[in-house]
Write a structure and sequence with these properties.
The protein is mostly helical. It is built from six helices and two strands, in the order ααααββαα. The chain has a two-stranded antiparallel sheet with strand order 1-2. The longest helix is centred in the middle third of the chain and has 28 residues. It is globular and about 50 Å long.
Length: 138
């Protein structure tokens, strides 16, 4: 279980959709689904899959809350370390999703379906905003 797996799991729980998170991350739905396969590692069913999306089970909500708290704490600690180091001694960004733009996929005769992804913390903030907005719209 990696930090990226947990970040994707939390985003899927918030959005309620693998495909919405895949679009936000610029990945395929199957790649997002691979990150969510934490059920083998935890030994518990974490998501109920429905025709219109996914809903976390009780075990999934427990893992989501713990992972979200842990990720927020880690992100806060990294920000404080950056502030402590000062502008001359900034650490490289923590490893996260691939910051390179996804290869554009095109509809027949149409514009690209994906847009370039921002890198680093801006990327994580954008994913969190879009997932929260989608969850609020439901």
């Amino acid at each position: 279980m990696t930090l990226d797996d947990l970040r994707v799991f939390v985003a899927v729980c918030r959005a309620g959709s693998l495909s919405a998170v895949a679009r936000d991350l610029g990945r395929t739905q199957s790649a997002v689904s691979q990150h969510v396969r934490l059920e083998k590692q935890t030994g518990a069913s974490l998501l109920e899959r429905h025709a219109r999306g996914v809903v976390p089970t009780e075990a999934g909500r427990i893992l989501q809350a713990a992972a979200a708290d842990g990720i927020a704490g880690l992100d806060g600690a990294l920000r404080r370390l950056d502030d402590l180091a000062g502008p001359r001694h900034r650490r490289p960004a923590a490893p996260g999703p691939d910051p390179r733009p996804a290869a554009p996929r095109r509809r027949l005769g149409g514009p690209p379906l994906v847009r370039p992804r921002p890198a680093g913390r801006a990327f994580a903030a954008e994913v969190a905003r879009s997932c929260t907005a989608r969850a609020a719209a439901r």
